[in-house]
Amino acid sequence: MAEGVGAPPQFGRPAPPPQTGWERLSELWRRDERQQYPEETVNIVKSAFTGGVVGWMYGGLPAFYHARKAFIERSHGELFQNRADAVQSAHRAGLRSFIRYGWRWSWRVATFVTIFNMASTGLSVYRNKSTISNYASAGAFTGALFRIHLGLQGLAGGLMFGTAFGIPAGALLMIMQKVAGETLQEKRNRERRELYEQKLAEWQSRLSVTDVLGEMESNAQGGPETERAREF
């Protein structure tokens, strides 16, 4: 116990919330004390999955019906064992097209949505505010990235398409957040501030307890030394 007198506490002052854009960006890919990723990161994953499903339905369902119809038109002269065999053959043809074209659209839509959300979220987190320009820039970047292999003309078309997509998509997302009462950035800043204030209060409480214990220990050690001094 004597070695602990005057020693610095084994815990430091809690770190303040991230102040710079790069600090906030790096926080997106770190887990918190509860081993959970930030809500923005989880939303990127959810939107990528949703985009994949929507893309699969968008590309797969029309392909299924078209392939099924084309198979029936082509097979009028073919012989089948029974009606059930003909129906199953038509469904198999439709299913092959559903998988083929559904996957073709699925990964494209999922990739587009993922890049768009990563870019828009990154801009909003870095700038610490949500604006239409963030979504417009993210849409332009994503559209250009998808069409860059077509040369300058494709790049320009991708920029225009991405911007036209990003502005209404961003406006819709911002309206939904406003209806909820606060944007994701406002919610994130509030949670950071509340967590920091809670940690700071706990640290100050433990620090005051440590100081009191140190004073009590010093007084307890000073008592016997004073008695011995009086005897001499």
Describe this structure in words.
This protein is an all-alpha fold and 232 residues long. It has 6 helices and no strands. The chain has helices spanning 21-27, 39-74, 83-127, 132-147, 151-180, 184-231.
Rg of Cα set: 32 Å
Number of helices: 6
Uncertain spans:
1-10
In terms of DSSP E residues, the strand content is: under 5%
Number of E strands: 0
Mean pLDDT: 80
The proportion of residues forming helix, as a percent range, comes to over 70%
Q: Sketch the topology as an H/E string, one letter per element.
A: HHHHHH
What distance separates the N and C termini? 27 Å
How would the global form be characterised? elongated
Helix/strand-derived class? mainly alpha
Task: State the major sheet.
Answer: none
What is the element layout, followed by pairings?
Layout lengths: L20 H7 L11 H36 L8 H45 L4 H16 L3 H30 L3 H48 L1
